[in-house]
Design goal:
The complex is a heterodimer of chains A (324) and B (291). Chain A contains 14 helices and eleven strands. With 324 residues, chain A is an alpha/beta fold. The two termini of chain A are 40 Å apart. Chain B has ten helices and five strands.
Chain lengths: 324, 291
């Protein structure tokens, strides 16, 4: 017990250096996208999942793959298609011939990894989506009469392509709520794109190093929940989420209490990532956007006026300043 | 950290006590000076015969006690309406590094994990650097002290020169009565009326009242008893006279003779004879002059 607390204390004291090293390593491979990388890390630290919405070719797979290597985690990618079956994700039994004869052996699916990238999840059928979502929620899969636990840490990064929504199966709101964050990836700036071009059109070989172990990551996930937050900020978070339910000008349906939990957790992770030992108002404000944008359903009026989720969240945050 | 915050909080409460004391002294002096100048002591002139310790009259004592009492009431009400002292907010407003950290550490002071303990340790060490004395508003106290000195000097000057305003309590009462709702005696005193039914003293000049924002004239027309007619100010109402069917207007006798006759009937027989004799003599005199 004493050794555990000592290890935890060591993990805490070295967390600042650890995170700096992660950003340095990932910077060798991924150009820009600092916000996206931070938010992915926050989702990992919160032991939760994230939804990435971006146009093709913005380095989603590269980013997640690189992060997995840096964190010493096993990474699998699932390309979702309309004909993808649940067994293609969770695994199935295969008949294997052994010395004793033919036996059924469970062949685990790609979901048996630490980080799973489900590309274009909205192309998979609702049945396949629900199999993945069940794994996300329960952190285990059931095949036949057997239940197989997934290795910790376990994280699903699902992606959606915003321009090809026709013929897809958009995730229902109830399922979207299971993702902690919705991360928007944007196009790189001119300077960033120039760097990308220089890096990936030459013969430059990039090598990255593992910065932390699985064990350290699990300790950091525990530390995130220990980051203190004031009662005043907690109250502010609840009022922000409440406001999404009360404001009927642009919002059809507001966020659930899961959003309050998610926002506080994400703010704690952001504080720890920045080397702080307390949650500040800035942490809450910054995390409000990725936490709330997929949990708010806008009404027709907002669509007609071209009001986006981020505009609405901005308005709510400004109003929340007067509430606390 | 808990002890440090408690100590600082106690100091802040002590500072507020100093402010309250300064306000109390200033207001007491101010009320006494005003009372002295306005001759408030004459309100209690009934007590001037009584002395306390054979030196100071009771009326003066009453004024001297009323001023601090009133001042205490004002100070209590003022500070009751003021916000409670929030020690943490006050410290955070002055020390940037402690902003948000102190509040968080205070709210999570009972948590026993490595991150919370680290925060509490950092905040506790920073709290030792807080200079509590710097929170005392010396300018506020100095201002109050200065004004108090001026008031003391003013009081000494007023008492030495026995300066008072010309306004007396009777003047104040009269002013209050003029602006008050007291009804003139001629209307309320019905015993003075000598008419059986008609109160002719009700008749007078047309007065203007304001009803629901509109100015209206209140006119009591003679002969209609106490009925009131309301017409809007500025309007000229054409009065129409409708002859009575019972009593034609041109043959209605004046009530004056009737009233005189009734008055005479109520007199004693001796008085009646005297009046008759006078009337006869008077008529003889008038007939002598005419011839």
């Amino acid at each position: 017990m004493r050794k555990d607390s000592q290890n935890l204390s060591d993990a805490y004291r070295s967390s600042g250096d650890t995170f700096r090293a992660i950003f340095d390593e990932i910077g060798k491979v991924v150009v820009g996208q600092k916000d996206a990388v931070t938010q992915i890390l926050i989702a990992i630290l919160c032991d939760s999942h994230a939804l990435i919405e971006s146009n093709p070719g913005l380095g989603k797979t590269l980013t997640v793959n690189t992060l997995s290597q840096i964190l010493g985690l096993k990474f699998n990618r699932i390309q979702c298609t309309p004909d993808l079956m649940p067994s293609d994700i969770i695994g199935t039994y295969v008949i294997e011939e052994t010395g004793r004869g033919k036996e059924f052996r469970f062949e685990p699916g790609p979901v048996f990894a630490n980080i799973v990238l489900a590309d274009e999840i909205n192309r998979a059928s609702p049945k396949t989506q629900s199999a993945l979502l069940e794994a996300m929620q329960e952190k285990q899969v059931t095949v036949g009469n057997n239940t197989y636990a997934l290795e910790r840490p376990f994280m699903v990064l699902a992606t959606q392509n915003p321009i090809e929504m026709e013929g897809t199966f958009p995730l229902p709101e109830a399922q979207l709520d299971r993702f902690l964050l919705k991360i928007n990836l944007d196009y790189p700036s001119y300077e960033e794109e120039k760097q990308i071009v220089d890096r990936y059109t030459g013969n430059l070989k990039l090598s990255i190093h593992e910065v932390m172990t699985q064990d350290t990551l699990l300790k950091l996930q525990g530390l995130v929940r220990d980051v203190p937050i004031s009662d005043e900020l907690k109250s502010r978070v609840i009022k922000i989420v409440e406001r999404t339910r009360d404001d009927k000008e642009f919002i059809e349906y507001g966020a659930s209490p899961r959003a309050s939990i998610g926002l506080i957790l994400a703010a704690k992770a952001r504080a720890l990532l920045n080397g702080n030992n307390f949650v500040s108002e800035e942490d809450v404000n910054e995390m409000a956007y990725p936490v709330l944008r997929h949990r708010i359903m806008l009404n027709f009026e907002s669509q007609r006026k071209g009001v986006t989720h981020d505009h609405v969240i901005d308005k709510i945050l400004k109003h929340a300043k007067h509430l606390s | 950290m808990y002890d440090d915050i408690e100590n600082i909080s106690r100091t802040f409460h002590r500072h507020r006590l100093y402010y309250k004391l300064a306000d109390f002294i200033l207001l007491s002096l101010l009320f006494y000076v005003i009372s002295y100048y306005l001759n408030v002591i004459t309100f209690f002139s009934g007590y001037m015969e009584y002395y306390v310790v054979n030196t100071v009259s009771l009326d003066r004592i009453i004024v001297m006690v009323a001023s601090p009492l009133f001042s205490a009431l004002v100070v209590i009400i003022f500070y009751l309406t003021k916000n409670r002292i929030d020690t943490i907010e006050m410290i955070e407003s002055r020390y940037d590094w402690l902003r948000e950290r102190l509040r968080t550490a205070w709210d999570c002071r009972d948590k026993d994990n490595v991150v919370a303990l680290d925060l509490v340790a950092q905040v506790t060490s920073k709290l030792r650097e807080v200079n509590v004395g710097s929170f005392l508003d010396r300018r506020y106290l100095a201002g109050r002290l200065l004004v108090s000195i001026v008031l003391v000097a003013a009081l000494m000057g007023l008492t030495a020169t026995d300066t008072h305003t010309g306004i007396t309590p009777e003047d104040i009462t009269r002013i209050v009565e003029e602006f008050g709702t007291e009804i003139p005696e001629s209307i309320t005193d019905t015993e003075k009326s000598q008419n059986g039914g008609l109160d002719e003293e009700l008749y007078g000049e047309t007065s203007v009242a304001s009803i629901e924002g509109e100015n209206v004239e209140l006119v009591i027309i003679p002969g209609l008893g106490t009925a009131v007619t309301i017409r809007h100010a500025g309007e000229e109402e054409e009065l129409q006279f409708v002859p009575s069917q019972t009593y034609p207007v041109d043959v209605v006798a004046s009530t004056a003779a009737d009233e005189s006759y009734r008055a005479v009937q109520q007199m004693s027989s001796q008085d009646r004879d005297l009046i008759k004799e006078y009337a006869v003599l008077h008529s003889k005199l008038l007939s002598n002059y005419s011839s």
